[in-house]
Write a structure and sequence with these properties.
CATH class: Alpha Beta
Radius of gyration: 18 Å
Order of helices and strands: EHEHEHEHEHEHEHHEHH
CATH architecture: Alpha-Beta Barrel
Structural class: alpha/beta
Number of strands: 8
Shape: globular
Oligomer: single chain
Bound molecules: NADP nicotinamide-adenine-dinucleotide phosphate
Largest sheet: 8 strands, parallel
Strand content: 5-15%
Number of helices: 10
Helix content: 40-55%
CATH topology: TIM Barrel
């Protein structure tokens, strides 16, 4: 799984130009999307336009809880593939541990949906399967309920304010790849004095400092931008290093805040 990818989103819009630019001019090979973001069709077009071979790409998609349940999940995945013009996903995630259907408990919905993902994996429609926003108790229950495949990846909010350390340690112990989203805390980190100071010290931008921090912690990261100059900037993070003092100073910024949603109330 490429350590660096480009995020896409419904919030803040989707930019066809930025995706094509990332693929053709910046060498980005990993793109993160979701059924929920409503840009599958446009993204499929951008991938085609880029002319990058399918086997060189890593495409992650996510299943929205509206479509949890065994047969609905399978149908939703096949529909997403068809909308994007793809034969398979490199990674397919359950987007959220909660279920929007009151007929079954969250745990039952997760287990039933996971069975569908296991089948999609065995059929080769999803080369890897995983979850997103799952805390330790969700992962433990899934392990008990599944027929043997444990999630390959758990995608979690991850930036200096929100380090999800307990989940990260659990994932490392269980052999689950810990992937981080919102590396810039949706921009909140970009005017932090400590980050600005480091940017000046390394002659880099605040966004590059934040992305580099994730990468140096070994965390897969997927910053999003709709602007081509920022896409380029965000990719230029492989030719400098933060030192131990910088890494520690950023790690001390954890205050537990979420800039998106917080799964801790989901049973
Ligand atoms: N699994 C989940 O539940 C979940 C939840 C949230 C996000 N995600 C994934 O993670 C990806 C990234 O998360 P995110 O977009 O929410 O947050 P983010 O990457 O932390 O921040 C994106 C914001 O920062 C701005 N930005 C990007 N690069 C910049 C730069 N170099 N300088 C200044 N501003 C910059 C963007 O604006 P412009 O677009 O205007 O440049 C946008 O407003 C998403 O696209 C999505 O794929 C997953």
């Amino acid at each position: 799984m490429p350590l660096f990818g480009l995020g896409t989103s419904h919030q803040g819009g989707y930019s066809h130009e930025a995706v094509v630019y990332a693929l053709t001019q910046c060498g980005v090979r990993h793109i993160d999307t979701a059924e929920r973001y409503g840009c599958e069709e446009q993204l499929g077009r951008a991938i085609k336009e880029s002319m990058v071979s399918r086997e060189d790409l890593w495409i992650t998609n996510k299943l929205w809880p509206d479509n949890y349940g065994f047969s609905t999940a399978k149908k939703a995945c096949l529909r997403s593939c068809s909308i994007m013009g793809l034969e398979y996903f490199d990674l397919y995630l359950m987007h959220w541990p909660g279920n929007f259907e009151s007929r079954v408990s969250n745990r039952e919905a997760r287990a039933e949906t996971w069975r569908a993902l296991e089948e999609l994996y065995k059929e080769g429609i999803c080369k890897a399967i995983g979850v997103s926003n799952f805390l330790v108790h969700h992962l433990e229950q899934l392990k008990e309920d599944s027929s043997g495949v444990i999630p390959h990846v758990n995608q979690m909010e991850y930036h200096p304010y929100q380090q999800s350390s307990t989940v990260m340690e659990y994932c490392q112990k269980e052999g689950i790849v810990f992937e981080g989203y919102c590396p810039l805390a949706k921009g909140q980190l970009l005017d932090e004095p400590k980050v600005l100071h480091m940017a000046e010290k390394h002659r880099r931008t605040p966004a590059q400092i934040c992305i580099r921090w994730s990468l140096q912690n070994g965390v897969v990261t997927i910053p999003k931008s709709t602007k081509i100059q920022r896409v380029r900037e965000n990719c230029q993070v492989f030719d400098f290093q933060l030192d131990k003092t910088d890494m520690e100073a950023l790690s001390k910024m954890h205050d537990g805040r979420h800039v998106t949603w917080d799964p801790s109330n989901i049973q």
